Amino acid sequence: MLASLVFTLLGVQLTIVFGLPLNGQLKPAAFDLQGHRGGRGNTIENTLPSFAWGMIDGVNTLEMDNGITKDGVVVVWHDEFIDPTKCRDTKPAFKGDLAFPYVGKNIVNLTLAQIKTLDCGSERLIDFPMQLSYPGTKISTLAEVFEFVGCADPQRKVLFNIESKINAAMPQNTSGVNEFVSKQHAAFLESTYDLGAITYQSFDWRTLVAMKDLDSKIITSALASSATILTAQNGVSPWLAGLRLSDFPGNTTGVQLANAAHSINAQVLSPLDVDSASPVLDPTLPGFIPFTTKEMIDQAHTVGMVVKPWTVDRLNVADQLFDWGIDGIITDFPSQMRRRLEQRGVALATPFPQKRVLDCLAKHLQRV
């Protein structure tokens, strides 16, 4: 069943078509294909090149991660520390810098100037042997990513799924909840994007609660994995904002998880695809254990949430999730996932023009 919303923008009448779930809440009819860290199976992750190729490959949403530097700048990077498998030192930010070399040190203990000396484009990950590398690529600030994407997408069609990489279990490794939320929210407001284009996601549900308290307009996505809910079965997980899954109704953990995420007003549930305890990774093999289950998806839909699992890099897993009714998918391989979605007749966003995207990349890419 479809519904439509008609409005006028700058004298032009626009119509947005929505799917209408059983509970009567509106949701976009187009399936949400997200490039995980831009699309790390294809291009070095969380960099302008990865976001460029994600757009060329036709993602609806660019998924990315944020850290906070020592001097309070929001940078786009996944890891708490500078991973030697992803980055190389080049030179100290200033003569006699005792913190040099920077590789191996936590983002929270490095300034933006120090981080900007790193080459994070030369190392191709062993687990992703088809990655395009862009030697010399610097880590970008969130503001710089917004600027590049705005150049490549002047009509502002692409969406963002932005994660706070805060460590709830070892808080000394990252900035805290208030700093993440305040700094990221300020970066959202300073961008040229409407807040409706940005989803704020986190494994640390405290940040989701804090972001909603700060600005109720922000769409929030509750990330969950086997590890983050593990201690919640018999106690309180540090990742779930003090909630106990056992306090929520449901005959399965998946149903309880959906109800718990709904209780913090998250609009999106973003669970791991395959349970970490599964002895096999493919649903065609005996013993396969999904983390994202049909019961979880059904309950999330019942309470008005959408479900977008991560990181789905097997088409057999993807097919099972599609059959169960997911609303979006986060993958390292957006180009291959798009082809499968097209085979299934799924409505997708139009890929962005390669020449324009790469021209903007050449203009905005920073190299050491």
TrEMBL record:
Residues 31-341 form the GP-PDE domain. The keyword Signal applies. Residues 1-19 form the signal peptide. Keywords: Signal. It comes from the Eukaryota. GO terms for biological process: lipid metabolic process. GO terms for molecular function: phosphoric diester hydrolase activity. This is PLC-like phosphodiesterase. It comes from Collybia nuda.
